[in-house]
Each structure stands twice: as C-alpha cells, then as structure tokens.
Amino acid sequence: MQTSVERTLIVFKPDAVQRGIVGEILSRFEKVGLKIVATKMIAPTKDHYYRHYEEIGKMITRRGKSTFDITLEMMVQGPVIAMVLEGVEAVALVRKLVGTTEPKSALPGTIRGDFSHMSFGYADNESKGIPNLIHASGDAKEAEQEISHWFSDDELYDYNVLNEKFTR
Question: Which domains does the chain have, with CATH numbers?
C-alpha cells in the first residue's frame, strides 16, 4: 500500500464557530502533526454551498433534496472557518479524528463524539440540520476538488514545520 503526504479540507461549521470551540478542535489536528497550509473565515453564499455539497459531494443524489435544503439553511446561519491541512495520509487521519457524521454514533475521543450528540432520528423529526461541528473531505479526490473550490493556489502555503523532520 502506497502512503503519501496529502492535503485535505476541513470546514468549522457555524455551530463550532458560534460555540467558541474552534481552537480546542484545531489543537487536536496540530497535536497529531497535521500542518495548516491555508485558512480563512468566510460566509459562503448558497451557490458556493451548492457546488460544495452537490456538485462535489453529491448530497442531493445520496441523501435527497430535503436533507440538502436543511443542511444549506444550517450552514448559512453564520460564518465558517475553512482550512487546508497537510500530512501523511491526512484525509483518513482527519476522518478518524472527526468521527462519524452522526454525532450520536461517534465514538468518545473523536471530535464529534466529545463535542456533539444529536441523532439523525431527532434531527429528522424536528426538520433540523445535524450540528456536527466540522466538515472533512471524504477521500483524496474529493479533497482535491474541495480545496480548489474553497481556496485559490496563491492562498495555499508551503513551509516546513519541526515534525516534518521526523515524518518525511
């Protein structure tokens, strides 16, 4: 199996920003050796989210228009913080740290398992979005598409951090 240094997108959703826990969550990524290569706070338009969630992520195709609409309304409730992280097998590592999409099912020790708790059932019954704090790219191809959607090439930085001395 080939391993490599990858880049992946994370987006701190409005619920993470509004709760004031971005720093605490971000520290988990830094502690495992992931490097921040881009970051910005942004209030994306519905068109931006349509491209992100449907054209790239196929949310309507996979989960239906109702789920997409509820997610979209939740995402436009405030600004988000988008970041690109880099590291060895970064996509899988970030997914492991974040935990499963449904907070109720996320294991303790994961970001969603420690900081959120809602179930799909409750959200569906209440016609609410799932406040699960963070978006993380699903695979390397998706990460590449998402990064180019959220960041221009001149917003991505290449620099060395101390732990790269031990991981490369």
Answer: 5-156 (3.30.70.141)
> Which percentage of the chain shows pLDDT scores above 70?
95
26 Cβ contact list (under 8 Å, min separation 6):
12, 36, 83
Which stretches within the chain are classed as H helix? Answer: 14-19, 22-31, 46-50, 59-63, 65-75, 90-98, 111-115, 120-126, 140-150, 164-167
Residues carrying an active site annotation: 135
Cα distance between residue 27 and residue 24, in whole Å: 5
**5 beta partners:** 88
* Its pTM surpasses 0.90: yes
pLDDT in tens, 135-156: 999 999 999 999 999 999 999 9
Nearest to 99 by CA among 83, 84, 114, 89: 114
